[in-house]
Write a structure and sequence with these properties.
Layout (H helix, E strand, L loop, with lengths): L2 E6 L34 E21 L2 E17 L4 E2 L5 E6 L2 H4 L7 H22 L7 H10 L1 H11 L8 H23 L16 H5 L21 E7 L22 H8 L3 E5 L5 H17 L12 E5 L7 H14 L1 H5 L1 E5 L15 H6 L2 E3 L6 H9 L4 E5 L4 H13 L3 E5 L6 H12 L6 E2 L2 H4 L8 H8 L5 E2 L12
Parallel strand pairs: 6-7, 6-13, 7-8, 8-9, 9-10, 10-11, 11-12
Antiparallel strand pairs: 1-2, 2-3, 3-4, 3-5, 6-14
Length: 495
């Protein structure tokens, strides 16, 4: 079984910067000015260290025509001191963690996943080193610090691309992915030093800038982040269980049993976790297969009557195409066929995710006005900042999928704007395990209107949850089809 642990070297690279012509995904046009009189909770000094672990999946996961069989988890630990002299260290050190899903973030077939991972790890290392160099010169809220760091990212990206002799740009998603554990660790350390939830430290008292200042968009002048992000978490959230394209639905489809005591078929997962929500990975280029897949999953849902506490609760499905559909007509055709031939499954569809290519600015970009008029359609891979959110809405998309792997700062800001603009909201993971899953769940629990939480790691990579089971077992051993997000009530990000 693959299980590797290692540290990630931190080096200072500032002397190797080269000019950049691109802009960060989500930051003000110019760096935020830090307050002359920082709040007592403002981070004054901080130090980041990185480490990584690698795990092999118990079963392969297929999505978007790609198969993933292992994962590397990047974890940042942050010691910190705030303006009042309170510290985050030892048993209350700041922790941020994320699975490095380069297959999803960087789908360029010309470069191996191993090469992409090396780039992302080096980029994260340089980001952490840069943050450490700025410690003591940036005193403020972690939101301010993260936006300041984002405004300096381009030089690092250019340097890494040059060192690896890349012939195409590093995708924005891969850049956000590299930064995400660092951001989470800063937010977690901020809350732990103050002995408060990070979500209760979003008011003007602790975070002076409004949404307009933080996004660079005057439309949000006077709007406060804490008006849209809840200080307290919801008690529970439904779990969206992933049904990958290779996952057996019944024993008849089970050709290579794992034999590790965990469920092997969809029916067994339904019984074990008392599921109510199923996220269905579809091909997007084989209409017959996609129809049969949804129909057959609906049949298994109906036939699995042993659902414990969830018996009698309604079913909800989401359809995830991972960019594979050529156009909106493909989506409409599938919906039409389901509505005619399997109306029960059609009625259970809660939302549709990222049907077409992530590049919303490509020539002849596909719109989703007709599909979204029937069922909410959200962007995932397309969402890399405020510009992409607004462009997606103009093209007919009705919601967004937030991910902790795109950075805590971006998730909070875009989540707040989505709530303000009454968009459909979901929070998804990247087969997150351990602290990364807990972080994703805490985000879900504090952003009003989020439909459900994902926890794919418990299916494909349960080994990554092992050290967290003693304290947060119910978050990983799901019962009643939901996760008890109320347990994420500790200082910082809750875990």
């Amino acid at each position: 079984m693959l299980h590797r642990r290692g540290s990630v070297a931190l080096n200072c690279w500032q002397n190797h910067f080269v000019p950049s012509t691109s802009s960060p995904a989500l930051s003000a046009p110019k760096p935020l000015s830090f307050p002359a009189n920082p709040a007592p909770t403002a981070l004054k000094e901080f130090s980041l260290a990185l480490q990584s672990e690698s795990y092999r999946y118990r079963t392969p996961m297929k999505f978007g025509g790609r198969v993933v069989e292992e994962v590397t988890v990047l974890t940042a630990e942050c010691t910190a001191t705030n303006q009042a002299g309170q510290v985050a260290e030892e048993d209350k050190i700041g922790v941020g963690s994320m699975t490095t899903g380069v297959t999803w973030a960087w789908p360029d077939a010309a470069l191996s996943d191993a090469a992409k991972l090396e780039v992302v790890m080096e980029l994260a290392s340089r980001m952490a080193a840069q943050a450490n160099e700025l410690s003591g010169t940036l005193t403020g809220h972690p939101m301010e610090i993260c936006l300041q760091l984002a405004s300096r990212r381009d030089e690092l990206v250019e340097a890494v691309a040059s060192s690896h002799e890349l012939t195409s740009p590093i995708p924005e998603l891969a850049i956000l992915l590299a930064a995400s554990p660092i951001e989470a660790a800063l937010f977690d350390a901020h809350g732990k030093a103050a002995g408060q939830s990070s979500y209760s430290l979003l008011s003007a008292e602790h975070l002076p800038p409004d949404l307009a200042e933080m996004t660079g968009d005057d439309r949000y002048a006077g709007l406060r982040l804490d008006s849209f992000i809840s200080q307290s978490s919801v008690a529970t959230l439904p779990l969206y269980h992933l049904v990958g394209a290779l996952d057996p639905l019944t024993e008849a489809e089970l050709t290579k049993p794992v034999g590790d005591g965990l469920p092997e078929t969809l029916g067994e997962w339904i019984t074990r976790n008392e599921l109510t929500h199923l996220k269905i990975k579809l091909n997007g280029d084989d209409a017959d297969w996609d129809f049969r897949r949804v129909r057959d999953i609906n049949t298994v849902a109906n036939e699995t009557t042993d659902r414990g506490a969830s018996t009698g609760k309604p079913w909800w499905f989401s359809l995830d195409f991972n960019e594979r559909c050529e156009d909106e007509a493909y989506v409409l055709g599938l919906l039409d066929r389901l509505e005619t031939e399997c109306p029960e499954a059609f009625e259970r569809i809660q939302y549709i995710e990222q049907p077409t290519h992530r590049d919303l600015k490509r020539p002849n970009a596909v719109t989703m006005h007709q599909a979204a008029a029937r069922i909410p359609v959200v962007i995932d891979e397309s969402l890399t900042g405020l510009e992409s959110l607004h462009l997606a809405v103009s093209q007919g998309y009705s919601g967004i999928a937030l991910k902790a792997c795109k950075g805590h700062a971006e998730a909070l800001l875009l989540g707040a704007i989505a709530v303000h603009e009454n968009l459909f909201l979901c929070v998804q993971d990247l087969t997150c395990v351990g602290a990364s899953l807990l972080h994703s769940a805490s985000l879900s629990a504090h952003i009003p209107g989020v439909a459900a939480v994902e926890s794919n790691g418990r299916q494909y990579c349960p080994e990554g949850n092992a050290e967290w089971m003693a304290k947060f077992g119910p978050m990983f051993e799901v019962r009643g089809g939901s996760v008890p997000t109320s347990c994420l009530d500790g200082p910082g990000l809750g875990y």
